[in-house]
Amino acid sequence: MCHVTVSYLARAIENAGIPTVGVYIEAFEPTVQLMKPPRVLLTPHLMGRPIGLPHDRERQTAVIRAALRLLETSDHAPVLERFVP
């Protein structure tokens, strides 16, 4: 799904009262800055692999945990945070 579509969907879901967090690659930061989705975790990974390489369970788990922490700790939107490996 396109990162722009994900941003629109996140905003609509948030408007329905359900908190969201999106995981995007850093290449999409300019779009994220313009769209201002509610919560975003930017990662340094390749396009199509926002949580890391296939079979890299340690990295993928770290990204997912960082996204869940962002969901738990942010009390206002929009929030943009960078994943630091």
Summary tags:
about 80 residues, alpha/beta, three-stranded parallel sheet, 3 helices, about 45% helix
Please, could you describe this protein's structure?
This protein is of the alpha/beta class. The protein has one domain (3-82). It is built from three helices and three strands; from the N terminus they run H-E-H-E-H-E. It has helices at 3-15, 29-35, 57-73, and strands at 22-25, 39-43, 79-82. A three-stranded parallel sheet has the order 1-2-3, sandwiched between helices. The longest helix is centred in the last third of the chain and has 17 residues, at 57-73. It starts with a helix and ends with a strand.
